[in-house]
Amino acid sequence: MSYKVVVVDDDEIILFLHSKIIQAVGLHNSPKTFNSALKALEFFESLSIDDEPILLFLDINMPVMDGWGLLDIIHNEGFDKKIEVIMVTSSVDQEDKDKAAWYSKIIHFVEKPFSKANLIDLKLDF
Protein backbone atom coordinates (compact mmCIF):
# COMPACT_ATOMS: atom_id res chain seq x y z
CA MET A 1 0.00 0.00 0.00
CA SER A 2 1.20 3.50 -0.76
CA TYR A 3 1.17 6.03 2.09
CA LYS A 4 1.95 9.65 2.72
CA VAL A 5 4.43 9.26 5.56
CA VAL A 6 4.40 11.95 8.25
CA VAL A 7 6.72 12.29 11.25
CA VAL A 8 5.72 14.58 14.13
CA ASP A 9 8.18 15.31 16.93
CA ASP A 10 9.30 18.51 18.65
CA ASP A 11 12.95 17.38 18.56
CA GLU A 12 14.60 18.42 15.27
CA ILE A 13 17.34 15.80 15.62
CA ILE A 14 14.77 13.01 16.02
CA LEU A 15 12.84 14.36 13.01
CA PHE A 16 15.99 14.22 10.90
CA LEU A 17 17.04 10.77 12.19
CA HIS A 18 13.63 9.17 11.76
CA SER A 19 13.21 10.68 8.31
CA LYS A 20 16.57 9.21 7.21
CA ILE A 21 15.71 5.77 8.64
CA ILE A 22 12.32 5.79 6.89
CA GLN A 23 14.13 6.58 3.62
CA ALA A 24 16.86 3.98 4.24
CA VAL A 25 14.42 1.09 4.69
CA GLY A 26 12.48 2.14 1.59
CA LEU A 27 9.22 3.05 3.34
CA HIS A 28 9.07 6.50 1.71
CA ASN A 29 11.49 8.67 -0.30
CA SER A 30 10.52 11.98 1.30
CA PRO A 31 8.47 11.78 4.50
CA LYS A 32 6.85 15.00 5.64
CA THR A 33 8.20 16.19 8.99
CA PHE A 34 6.57 18.57 11.45
CA ASN A 35 7.92 19.86 14.75
CA SER A 36 4.45 20.39 16.19
CA ALA A 37 1.12 18.60 16.21
CA LEU A 38 -0.63 21.80 15.12
CA LYS A 39 1.50 22.06 11.96
CA ALA A 40 0.75 18.41 11.16
CA LEU A 41 -2.97 19.04 11.68
CA GLU A 42 -2.83 21.99 9.25
CA PHE A 43 -1.18 19.68 6.70
CA PHE A 44 -3.85 17.00 7.19
CA GLU A 45 -6.59 19.59 6.70
CA SER A 46 -5.00 20.65 3.39
CA LEU A 47 -5.34 17.13 1.98
CA SER A 48 -8.36 15.96 0.03
CA ILE A 49 -10.32 12.94 1.20
CA ASP A 50 -9.13 11.09 -1.93
CA ASP A 51 -5.41 11.45 -1.13
CA GLU A 52 -3.28 8.47 -0.20
CA PRO A 53 -3.67 7.15 3.34
CA ILE A 54 -1.36 8.66 5.96
CA LEU A 55 1.14 6.69 8.02
CA LEU A 56 1.85 8.93 11.01
CA PHE A 57 4.87 8.51 13.30
CA LEU A 58 3.74 10.51 16.34
CA ASP A 59 5.55 11.61 19.49
CA ILE A 60 3.52 11.84 22.71
CA ASN A 61 5.21 14.59 24.70
CA MET A 62 5.25 17.90 22.84
CA PRO A 63 4.47 21.49 23.85
CA VAL A 64 1.20 23.28 22.98
CA MET A 65 -0.59 20.17 21.66
CA ASP A 66 0.77 16.77 22.63
CA GLY A 67 0.34 13.54 20.70
CA TRP A 68 -2.76 12.61 22.70
CA GLY A 69 -4.43 15.88 21.69
CA LEU A 70 -3.75 15.18 18.03
CA LEU A 71 -5.03 11.62 18.44
CA ASP A 72 -8.27 12.93 19.95
CA ILE A 73 -8.80 15.04 16.83
CA ILE A 74 -7.90 12.15 14.51
CA HIS A 75 -10.44 9.92 16.26
CA ASN A 76 -13.17 12.54 16.04
CA GLU A 77 -16.00 11.59 13.69
CA GLY A 78 -15.37 14.73 11.62
CA PHE A 79 -11.80 13.69 10.72
CA ASP A 80 -12.20 12.13 7.30
CA LYS A 81 -8.60 11.23 6.34
CA LYS A 82 -7.44 7.62 6.20
CA ILE A 83 -4.70 7.39 8.79
CA GLU A 84 -2.71 4.83 10.76
CA VAL A 85 -0.53 5.87 13.68
CA ILE A 86 2.72 4.58 15.10
CA MET A 87 3.35 6.13 18.52
CA VAL A 88 7.04 6.88 18.85
CA THR A 89 8.01 7.98 22.32
CA SER A 90 10.74 8.05 24.92
CA SER A 91 8.09 7.22 27.51
CA VAL A 92 8.42 3.82 29.13
CA ASP A 93 5.32 4.47 31.23
CA GLN A 94 2.89 1.53 31.14
CA GLU A 95 0.02 4.02 31.44
CA ASP A 96 0.96 5.47 28.04
CA LYS A 97 0.96 1.99 26.50
CA ASP A 98 -2.40 1.23 28.09
CA LYS A 99 -3.84 4.56 26.91
CA ALA A 100 -2.57 3.88 23.37
CA ALA A 101 -4.61 0.68 23.30
CA TRP A 102 -7.80 2.78 23.43
CA TYR A 103 -7.07 4.46 20.09
CA SER A 104 -8.08 2.25 17.18
CA LYS A 105 -5.85 4.05 14.67
CA ILE A 106 -2.65 3.25 16.60
CA ILE A 107 -1.09 0.21 14.96
CA HIS A 108 2.23 0.16 16.86
CA PHE A 109 3.88 1.70 19.92
CA VAL A 110 7.69 1.99 19.75
CA GLU A 111 10.36 3.65 21.85
CA LYS A 112 12.47 6.36 20.29
CA PRO A 113 14.73 6.72 18.67
CA PHE A 114 13.78 3.83 16.45
CA SER A 115 16.29 2.04 14.27
CA LYS A 116 16.18 0.37 10.87
CA ALA A 117 15.74 -2.99 12.62
CA ASN A 118 12.83 -1.64 14.71
CA LEU A 119 11.11 -0.34 11.62
CA ILE A 120 11.64 -3.56 9.67
CA ASP A 121 10.33 -5.58 12.63
CA LEU A 122 7.03 -3.66 12.42
CA LYS A 123 6.41 -5.44 9.10
CA LEU A 124 4.93 -2.38 7.44
CA ASP A 125 4.00 -2.55 3.78
CA PHE A 126 7.29 -1.49 2.12
Features:
126 residues, alpha/beta, Rossmann fold, five-stranded parallel sheet, 5 helices, 5 strands
Class from secondary-structure proportions: alpha/beta
| Count of folded domains | 1
Largest beta-sheet characterization = 5 strands, parallel
Rounded mean pLDDT score: 90
Indicate the proportion of strand residues: 15-25%
Q: Quick one: how many beta strands?
A: 5
- CATH topology description: Rossmann fold
Task: Identify the overall geometry.
Answer: globular
Sheet with the most strands: spatial strand order: 2-1-3-4-5
Helicity range = 25-40%
List the helices and strands in order: EHEHEHEHEH
The CATH architecture can be given as 3-Layer(aba) Sandwich
Radius of gyration: 13 Å
Residue stretches low in confidence (pLDDT < 50, at least 5 long) are none
Q: Which superfamily, in CATH terms, is the homologous superfamily?
A: Response regulator
Under CATH at level 1, the class stands as Alpha Beta
Distance between the termini: 8 Å
Total DSSP helices: 5
